[in-house]
Amino acid sequence: MRNTQSTQLLFELSSPGRRAARLPACDVPERPVEELLPAELLADQPPPLPELSEPDVVRHYTNLSTMNMSVDTNFYPLGSCTMKYNPKRNERIAAMAGLADLHPYQPEESLQGMLQLLFELQEMLVEISGLDVVSLQPAAGAQGELAALMMAAAYYRQRGEQRTKVLTPDSSHGTNPASAAMAGFDAVTVNSNGNGCVDMDDLRSKLDEQTAVFMITNPSTLGLFDQQVAEIASVVHGAGGLIYLDGANMNAILGITRPGDFGADMMHFNPHKTFSGPHGGGGPGAGPIAVRQQLAAYLPSPIVVQDGDTYRLDDDRPLSIGRVRSFFGNVGVLVRAYIYIRTHGPDGLRRVSENAVLNANYLLARVKHFLPIPHGDRCMHEFVASAAQLKTDRGVTAMDIGKRLLDFGYHTPTVYFPLTVAEAIMIEPTETESKETLDAFAETLLRVVDESPQLLHEAPHTTTISRPDEVQAARKPVLTWVAE
Amino acid sequence: MPYTINTPRDQQEMLEAIGVESLDELFAMVPEEIRLGGDLHIPPAMSEMEMTRHMAELAGKNQSTADSVCFLGGGSYDHFVPAVVDFVASRSEFYTSYTPYQPEVSQGNLQATFEYQTLITQLTGMDVSNASVYDGGSAATEAVLMSLAATRRSGRVVTTDTVHPEYRQILQTYLANVDTELITVAASDGRIDLPRLTEQITDETACVLIQHPNFFGSLEDVERIALAAHNAGALLIVSVDPMSLGLLRRPGELGADIVVAEGQSLGTPMLYGGPYLGILACREKFLRRMPGRICGQTVDRRGKRCFVLTLQTREQHIRREKATSNICTNQGLFALRASVYLALMGPQGMRELGNLCLQKARYAAERICQSERFELAFDAPTFKEFVVRDIDGNVDDLLAHAASQGVFAGVPLGKWYPDLADCFLVAVTEKRTQADIDRLVSALRANSRKVAASYA
Ligand SMILES: Cc1ncc(COP(=O)(O)O)c(C=O)c1O
Fold it and tell me: Is the pLDDT score of B266 beyond 60?
């Protein structure tokens, strides 16, 4: 039975005078606050926060947590998000005081171990990307995109070129065009061809001397490796543009091929996907960017450099775009990425990708008999099925199927993305799932597609809530608790 | 292999089911010419034991704040983190889930976010909060971008050099590619010079961005600054220290339109700079300009109260280039930590905490300045941080010496403020004891030059 009493809102559980935290007595001579601060700046009352006991808080959150699905509890094939297992060793190691209890403004002499780690991570990402220089500063993939596009703007400004457009494929993630707009560019969409890859004619027709960057996701959000990528790079470079690689899907190609070797000039990594950073219910991530030498001067500052036996932060980089984030960046995520890469080594990383691709293809092979896969028989680390036919035939949508899977203990795949596939169901199993899990999932999916439309429209049936009214939520937003 | 699960037999069966001969054949889509011929040149794999040893070695090359006394601040602080925060945040169901796209199996995260939004509005006195952005700096920058859209003024943004220098650098980076002029007004005596600031606020000005307590720890006259901004039709953005809000009036009562903060102090260790928590709250009328996720209350098909992500038509996955921001992955885990922290502290806890910071900081300032070598750089009232001037003008050696004694005494200011090259910023949290402060004072008193040379 669920404990619904303890999952009332914190504010409903509050009782005046109840307390959890107990602070030490003041051990220095104390003076009245009014003597120390001007009266007009002092609050009459402390903020109206809830008043709770420690057991209240623990029981509340522990019960709340049980209302989530997570990687540690469920198969979570959320396409594009690479919900792989998060190694527990990373957690214990990253929590060592010598790594976690470091202030960002400590003197560099007191940070040599951390700077060495970050320097080595930069170097390993250089190698994995096939590019030349890395900045670890961006806080997430989207901020990596933005930083790189701002670098492109600075690069062209320096060269005296007026380039105002960034091209992104219609299958790209929403952050790509959003980052382009934030960096001051006009975002222009390039269509996909019938195979789900870049339509070369459309690319050529939109590419001109105004084009600064073509952003490609390869493997794409359809789980396909675009074989035209070298040609794309040469066409874009021929027009004086740069290639940005959205590295969200690096999990498919570690040690197999490198963005720098297929024409990318800049890219971001999503260490919270590829290198197993726990997703934390929405974040944190990190968004290291790797670039070619000709762009290195524009990277955000600082970066870590090695001088003989010592490491230091270099922020004497006059062409740098500056900062995109305070302090060094999302170091905790980077430390986990470092541990992940070092515990895998070159073989291990390649096997990660081989098994990610094997698992996805295996699942595809099982699913294709009852759910159409519009873009063919093979995939990289993920594939996109379509419920369009089901919708026409029986009124069953991608959403219905996704919701019904919850009843069987599976997290819903990514649905309705990419936008180029009608009723898209985007499935990414990752390498950390077993054949048994994939078999059971495929069998469940097979069963679900045949269930009655009525049952599916009302799914899920076994969760604490079902089908929230999202229209009402948006029409009359209730975004905070208000005392009655 | 550490986390791949397929046995050779599994692999064989799977390859057969797919209809290929080898793993290699699975990669047929990747043209031969661009395949990596050999292995990546990265070090060979380490076992868990080896890795733990290696990392302990790296950690051992750092001097952590666990074995030193930390008086460093400037946006990241050594506040105490209660055990319950770590306990809750490490629950797998919070820790290894992602953005709550499926509300039916994310009510834990969604309710925690709804509570976070409420706690932040209670703390700041604003109407609404989002679910987090990256850090204090991106919060300040996103708030400025919001104000450009909300006021439809893109001519000018006014800030002051009392705002965190790195936040201003981020802002400058983001504004470099749009036609908005960024004016930075110089402080006088460590605080905003109101007439000088007012002079810069034109009818083209979208917003005024200030920090309170400011980067030097001093309190600003927020109400009068708000008036100056509003008189010109500009918005006021205030970057606050959440730990001050048990004592100080809330920015919502002082006229702020958007409040931003670095939320690290609310239950997150310093982690050499991140991941942290960008707090962003505003008045209701700017709600639809907000970046990032927002959680709302609704009912499910059976009429039961529940929570969902809402107002998503602002966001990149729907609006693409027309979105209010490009943010996708946020700092959800740290919003959770902040919520647990605030739930444990409650109103009284926050008040006592604020008082401890204030009393200890004042005591430390007085003790330091008993030496003829030091004086407070500014007269303005401060909360938990203050700027000390070294009359000998030898800050680098002084701080290096203190560090060698196990005391991180302060953040030198010369890098950002050439005029303050003889000054350093000292932060005193509730964690510092009288004995710690005594150590600070004696580390600062010793003859710096000689010992500093041996430390280097
Ligand atoms: C293909 C793709 N690109 C970019 C991003 C953005 O990365 P982040 O969420 O880390 O900002 C994502 C993540 O959701 C993605 O799937």
Answer: yes
